[in-house]
Amino acid sequence: MELKALREEVLEANLELVRRGLVIFTFGNASGYDAESRRVVIKPSGVPYDKLAPSDLVMTDLEGHILAGSGLRPSSDLPTHLALYRAFAGVHGVVHTHSRYATSWAQAGVEIPCLGTTHADYFRGPIPITPPMQAEEIQSEYEWNTGQAIIRRFAGLDPLATTAVLVNGHAPFCWGPTVSTAAHTAEIVEELAHMAFLTVTIRADVAGLSDVLRDKHFLRKHGPSAYYGQENVR
């Protein structure tokens, strides 16, 4: 079976979303991208997670042509994944969920604010949100245009430093150098969304974290001067 390791990793990432309570029923999807072959492996559309096997995953090229699978259609969100792989160099995994708290922020049309150091450990500022999509974008090539909305929102942002976005009125997308990393980020985003919700519920006028404290926490874990954790430990 072609790209056996990637198929297994993509399946495991999809199952991890279920285990972590980030998806229910057939909500959400995860995909992986192999840069050498320029092939994408993604969950099939509408198939229950507990029924999935590696051979059920659909393989496409970056244009969305189906190259391998068991006859199942790929996730309807495939065009969004493809848009991100084509635009964001270094991204080899994309995850989309409808997790409860992150999706609630997306439905409210509000970015997830950076209110504490837990957030700053992972994001150097708020988790951004796209502007609302226009009617013509929704009515024509909706999923592809969703990807374009994300790409436009990231003009001037580094997608390898900010690895998640809320699609306005929709839900979060997360990504990373592997699909496993993207799934981990999806879990982090949901936890941060929950913390932010509780924080503004306790105090609606809470001030955001200071730039100094935010940067200290982010940079001690990311970048050339990072010193958190152990070297060469995975």
Characterise the protein shown here.
Helices cover 38% and strands 12% of the residues. The chain contains eight helices and seven strands; from the N terminus they run H-E-E-E-E-H-E-H-H-H-H-E-E-H-H. Helix 1 (4-19) packs parallel to helix 7 (179-202) and helix 2 (78-87) runs parallel beside helix 6. It starts with a helix and ends in a 15-residue tail after the last helix.
Structural class given helices, strands, pairing?
Answer: alpha+beta
Q: Which value, in Å, is the CA radius of gyration?
A: 18 Å
Most strands sheet: 7 strands, antiparallel
Number of domains: 1
Total count of helical runs of at least 4 residues? 8
For the residues shown, what is the average pLDDT?
A: 94
Distance between the termini: 28 Å
